[in-house]
Amino acid sequence: MIITLSPSKGQDFAEPAKTKKHTTPVALDDSQLLIKELRKINSGELQEMMSISENIANLNVGRFKEFKTLFSTSNAKQAIFAFKGDVYSGIDLENFSADDLAYAQKHLRILSGLYGCLRPLDLIQPYRLEMKTKLKNPRGDNLYQFWGERITDRINKELVKQQEPVLVNLASNEYFKSVKPKLLEGRLLNINFKETKDGKTRIVAIFAKRARGMMTDYILRNRIEKVEDLKKFKQGGYKFSKADSDDKQWTFVRPQPTK
Predict the structure, then answer these.
(1) Within 13 A of 38's CA, how many CA atoms are on the CB side?
(2) pTM tops 0.90
(3) I need a labelling partner for 134 at 20 to 30 A (CA). Which of 40, 103, 113, 185 fits?
């Protein structure tokens, strides 16, 4: 089983990672091609292209200029510890053992506009580059064209190693559009999380993000290998809803909390 997650806009490079173990992103040469294009863009252009504030644009112009290889723990940080946000708040990294991290390294892949397909312990440098960004590059007019089939190919190489060749998609639509479902060499299972309130059941973005992190945590810490075992997931009050699910998409539902 392979899990896909989105990255987060929020990042923390001040707090040291819990482990010194690290790897290098496999598509770093591709990342450098993107950095070359990003360095041609000034702050005002970046602000407009990415719909961000002037301060964030200035920050990232500086980041692109400072980007350099070789990566080390002195200028980069392991992805799973660098990303901060609603999704990652659901992953209890403080209590992860070395074995938990080793298992995550084999089963979790984080989709990234700059890095492509990241393993949890891959080192990254600070950046902001959402997958939907319309950045002209040598391969096209946007990042989907830039990555093409590369991310799918990387996932396929991981699927063949699994007990069950199943991709459990916990990434957002924006990021999972970088994967080509028809080219996957295994089963694709999309996961939804819904809230019930006043007799209506719907997806609430902030709760869905947290739930993706909770399910990721559940899979990794329980060493889930068989997809059917995911139906036992009950963290946060969610329960598998057979009525709202089919072979391609499973839905977990709970009463909507107040916060």
Answers:
(1) 30
(2) yes
(3) 185
